[in-house]
Request: fold
Amino acid sequence: AQSVTQPDIHITVSEGASLELRCNYSYGATPYLFWYVQSPGQGLQLLLKYFSGDTLVQGIKGFEAEFKRSQSSFNLRKPSVHWSDAAEYFCAVGAGDTGRRALTFGSGTRLQVQP
Amino acid sequence: NAGVMQNPRHLVRRRGQEARLRCSPMKGHSHVYWYRQLPEEGLKFMVYLQKENIIDESGMPKERFSAEFPKEGPSILRIQQVVRGDSAAYFCASSHDSSSDEQYFGPGTRLTVT
Reply:
């Protein structure tokens, strides 16, 4: 069974600073990987996804993530954070290669942005 | 193109009552997923349905919970005889046909059991 670990429960960065949110997964084969963002009281919005190919994927809102198989990681990055990026971020893994569609989510990282 | 729609957005039920949560997938999507988010936790998969079929219910509690996605109309997640531990946000997602297609999430239904 797959699992996802987001080691940082809460991160605070200054506006304009760079950001990296960590995500480690456990899955036997090549996973399908996702990053979602959730604003308070809202649903989840997909930031980016990795299925195969180039290990550096670009997403919306200036986010990118890099798949590193050797480290079982899929960390999310942004070079310059904006105040509107304050939200909760979830990493998820899917076993799409098996045909099973259920996503397994990490417990989330809450991002606070200081002015 | 309207996104995934869920209603009601907020639902309050007393212990022992029934809760019905509705989800209308995005236009053109025939796959629906239900997830539950407990306070301060990530989302946990409950069930995956296609029209008139339950494909994967490995995350559904064995008792009191049921889901359907009829030929016509929205998908329904039904919780009978609710208890306080059922208080959570319930999210519906939908996707297109391929297993590599991303899931689009609705705004959720926040269930409070008093």
Observations:
- The CA atoms of residues 2 and 26 of chain B lie 6 Å apart.
